[in-house]
Amino acid sequence: MSSSRLSTVLGTTWILHICCAATALLACIPILWPEESYPDFLAPVLPQLGQIIAGSVLASVVILLITCTHFLLRIKNLQAFLQLIYCSAIWGIGVLIFVEMAIEADVPSPYETAERQPIQETAILHQPTENITSPASLVIPIDPETSQANTIAAVPNLEKLEKEHEELLTAYITRSPRWAYADKGDTFYTRPGHVVLVPPSSGGIPGTVHATFRTVAEGEQLPDGFVPVKPGDAFPQPTAENEELPDIALMLSGKHHLLLAWRGTKHRDTAQKAINAAITTIDSQVQKLAENPTEETLERMCTGKRKRRGSTPGLRVVEPNNQYGIYQAEVYANTGRPGTLLLAIRDINDDNKLLRLFSFPARYSPDSQEIFRHDIPGSQEEWIRDSTVSDMAHLFPPGAPFFAIKCGESHNYFGVSFELQFAPSGSDATEPQTLLRRHYKVQAYENQPAE
Q1: Cα separation, 136 vs 138, whole angstroms
Q2: How far apart are alpha carbons 174 and 165 in whole angstroms?
Q3: Which of 30, 33, 95, 374 could form a disulfide with 331 if both were Cys (CB 3.0 to 4.6 A apart)?
């Protein structure tokens, strides 16, 4: 190859830098979104994602060194300097794209080293605000900015189920951990157990949408204060100036209604967009059942995805919005062998003061890069109900996917530790192995006398 032709080739190496940066960004997608990015065909390359990213960066650096050295030896300093600028600009844009992806994926800061340790000994009190991922989660994020505010949103999937497969819709409402345990009182949104749909906090939209399904038989009345509407109807008008949007009961062309209550700003456009975002989100969650109305589909919807890629045990705890003093939690772990997982909740100031104890069979596999979801508390048959605080069983319906902590009074926050332990089957060890420990700021449900 002639010298001029080599210079021409090396002068266009920015294309190779773009390819390297794009390869690194693509390899980041399964890392940032592990639950959505692990189809079977990606499985062989998953363990090598770090090497792919490192190799892309190294290849770009080697190309830059070769190119700059060539032009410097040819005494073409300006071209060598331009090559350095091209490479820096391309990777700078790549870093900005990665940062935006990381923000979108809600990746924790790399500087919060205490959060990354398998066993948390720190006394930092975390707010229980993590969104759990199981179908039992009572908190659902919504994006009102994508919704219109003129008329009630359509619900094609719910209406199809109501008209063609009413028995499946009824089964979904009565069996889904998310919907089955809501209070049947008229003011359901003041009591624990109902679904809360939350707009993004950074969007400047204060407020939440409270939702539940209600079956209204022929001759029965809707709960007091709810205005019946149909998809495509205009939003009902407030009865007085500066009043919030009225609570609505969305009719599904049958006996089922979706009750929605907006609690937040009185700005009408904001409230209507949030209501429509909630309606659209709830309808999209039953799309698979509407498209494939089988018992198997229903079962998958009620149990959700039980495992994901990863190796470090994880814990998520949430206090659903406006449902003070009740909690939901889920554990991700793979013990690698049969045994029992235990979640002990203790007073942070007195490690001997056990407030709640949950125990459940461990899900496991020999794959060290796979971790399994365990719901706290669980509604599956294999769940072992905790008996430490037997006099709290009457607070919530049996099998409800949320729990309370008996200590102190509501709105008086205190610190507790959540400690995940594992006891192998047939083990003679006196002490279970501690997998994870974190501290949270919690409160009691209603008024529970301190022990």
Answers
A1: 6
A2: 15
A3: 374
